[in-house]
Amino acid sequence: MADNYSITSMQDSEKARTPDDDENSLARVVLSQNEEYIFLGRQKFRKSDLYAAFGGTLNPGVTAPPIHKFGNPAPLGLSAFALTTFVLSLINAQAMGVTQTNVVVGLALFYGGLIQLLAGMWEMAVENTFGALALSSYGGFWLSYAVLNIPWFGVASAYEQSRDFQVAVGFYLLGWTIFTSMLCLCTMKSTVAFFLLFFFLAITFLMLTVGELAPSVNCTRAGGVLGVITAFISWYNAYAGLSTPENSYLQVSAVPLPGSVSRGLRSK
């Protein structure tokens, strides 16, 4: 994803070549010489009208304003993910000796699962494909995690040996490790906090995967510690998307990663 966007200087906005002249035009951001206009694919926008990459909106790159005017669903989804991850990660880390994860089932079903899934659907309505994919997928993750821990579904009892179930859970977590790593690659031109969220989440899944497959209690506990860090980063991004000069004395400034084309643009 690091090469998805490239910047081409133009002699002027009227006479210079257009994105149609490039065979990869849909993957290019083209600036006029005075940088007043930007072409996204075959559409032309004023730079002041575009939105920058911002973790508070789960927007990983430069984007045009949405057609539909809805509220920002990202803080809701990020908060649902953060709280559920925080509680489970404390248990994985064996904080205060607690090891049973049953208390997470309710959170995983309704807050991390259902609420986050709904936030993902609203991300689709505001034309944010990345946000829709991320929130809906992790909403599905929490719903499926709850199913694993509800005896009525009979998932664990279907395995004759507990070790077989542990390995199967390891495979399950491995899939989420791969998926999260893919999303992380899509944030490498966004902001520091946005990138760190998916980086730490990928490492968390990796440690939990090793903890199940090895098996290794220490790796699982390390995954718990990393999960707590991930939860706080998620809350940070949620706060960034929620706080405004009208409701808070403390706002979060987005720090673009090197190579980001979002510098000078506004956040949603």
Automatic annotation (TrEMBL):
As for membrane topology, the entry says:
Multi-pass membrane protein
Q: TM spans, by residue?
A: 76-97, 103-122, 129-153, 165-185, 192-210, 222-242
Kindly give the InterPro entries that the UniProt entry links to this protein: AceTr, Gpr1/Fun34/SatP-like, GPR1_FUN34_YAAH
| Location in or out of the cell | Membrane
Keyword Cell division in annotation: no
At the top level, the lineage of the source is: Eukaryota
Keywords, ordered alphabetically: Membrane, Transmembrane, Transmembrane helix
Q: What is its main location?
A: membrane
- Which residues fall in a compositionally biased region of kind Polar residues? 1-11
Renumbered to this chain, region (Disordered) spans 1-23
Annotated GO MF terms = acetate transmembrane transporter activity
Query: Which Pfam family, giving just one, matches this sequence?
Result: Gpr1_Fun34_YaaH
Q: Can you cite an annotated GO cellular component?
A: plasma membrane
Q: Record's family?
A: Belongs to the acetate uptake transporter (AceTr) (TC 2.A.96) family.
PANTHER family in the cross-refs: ACCUMULATION OF DYADS PROTEIN 2-RELATED (PTHR31123)
Recorded hits in NCBIfam families, A to Z, give: AceTr_1
Please state what the protein is called.
Answer: BA75_02508T0
Tell me what organism the protein belongs to.
Komagataella pastoris
